[in-house]
Fold each of these.
Amino acid sequence: MSCLTCGSASQIHPHTQASLGTKRYYGFGAHLMDVAAMYGAAHGGSSYFTHLIQVHEALGLALRYEDATVLTYLTPKKDWEMVVIAEKPSKAFFTLVHHTLRAYLDDMTLLSFSVAMFFPALNDAPSLPAIARIVERGVPASIRSDISAMELFAHSNVDVDPFVAARNMLPAIRRALARDPS
């Protein structure tokens, strides 16, 4: 999903794009599958995603809600990156995605963002857990682009410390969860 022009939306209103594959993830999803497989092979079959969540929890960069967890990502691609992970798409997963987006809008006044979601395979093929990556994309009124050649072709340029993001985002999501009637 892309929200507003700074979020790379071609229209002013939020909109989404989707893709389905029959054999394998592509792009970043394929990269995650490869990383998880290599990690499991090197660590006696341990789950990359379980350990990723545990590291973030140990650093105070995670919030669990039922069967889902939101991470203030330790190695963000862009400022204010949040990642929601659950074994499968569930009400808790989508609730955390919703409250994370509401925290962007209501608590942080971050109006332009992009969201990418990956879901487990519909068949018995090896697959990813449900993952939502959310990044802030800059001030909508700004004429400056939020992405540079460095970010496109080399390394990410992140100006917001993940620990600062956690101090701001996780309490906002916690408050929203406490108010949630479901």
Amino acid sequence: GDNQQLHVAGMCHSNTRGGRRINGFGAPLNSYQIATWVLYAWVILEFVIFIAPFLHRDSSFLWSVVAGFFVSAISTFGWAWVCTAHDPTDVQAVEAWKHPTVANDTTADTYCLYCSANVSSNCKHCRACDRCVDDFDHHCVYLNNCIHKGSYRAFIGLLVSVVIMMAIWIACNAFVAIVALDDGSPSRVALKGNSITLSPLQTANSCSH
């Protein structure tokens, strides 16, 4: 209700600095970011409810695939959190905002009109976040944050985790769909060697034909 909305608003406000976003949790949240959270939750729920229950427990291979999905899903969440919570703001700009009485050299090439501060020479101003970012690479709308030298490793870890997670999800959905089309209904299956062991119901249906 109202208390939950106030909590979310307070959390977003705590991730801003003088009206500027500190990290990806700062207001305003991006619509692509919110859609990504919803999609992530839906993928996991769909896998838990519709995919995992149709796999035989006696198949070590299939359950290792399920385990791989959850490991990559947890890794995706972890790396996404690190990338979103990271503050890529230039240190010199932050110091200038902390000490507004200290004069800035407005004639220097490193002076940023938008930040009203002298910044590092390798900075670039992100208009989406309204702050200068050290070693700026790009602004990610899905994380609502800037990616730079300090978050490269976490961002690459996120990309690898997402690719593995979605590859397993697509493969398992395709596998269950193929079995469902062949059997007429979703069935439990198990892989043993190079063969597929059918469920008792599917075996009975095959024998009746």
Amino acid sequence: SSGINAEWPLRPGEKLEAKAKSGSVAPAAAPPATASASKPAAKKEESDDDDFDFGDSDDEETKGESEMQKMKRLAAEKKVADAAAKKDAKPARVLKSNVVLDIKPWDDETDLGEMEKQVRSIAMQGLVWGDCKHVEIGFGIKKLRMSTCIVDEDVGLYDLEEKIEELEDFVQSVDIVSHNKI
């Protein structure tokens, strides 16, 4: 019995013809020539079967899978497009800032009430003036501390400073005390 096992052990992936060529298997174990002659006839019969469509062929299954994958892909693309459209549909958030300015007069004789009126007369879209205080600098000189709310896209802070400084009869300089995003 050990002689039979020694002649016949096939490893996975090893073909019978390779064993026959190496001499470890007797030539009688090789497939007969009549089997190869019957194979073309079997192929002919298989090709005759292809003429009949029973609705469950492998070609349709692979085609159905690709259509299913296509449907999944299109659904995913639509979902991404809907999410992007929804994101775009949200109104953009308006960025605002609360700015406190120190507006310094030329001297102690400058009328701060008139200076405040002139500063408040500056109008820009996105600019809202807030309260105003008179703050002591020293030696009897006071300055205006004015708060304002600006829309960042509409009002340039440096442009606002320049417009205030254009009031040369009243204003010596403008300083930004604080600038906070709202």
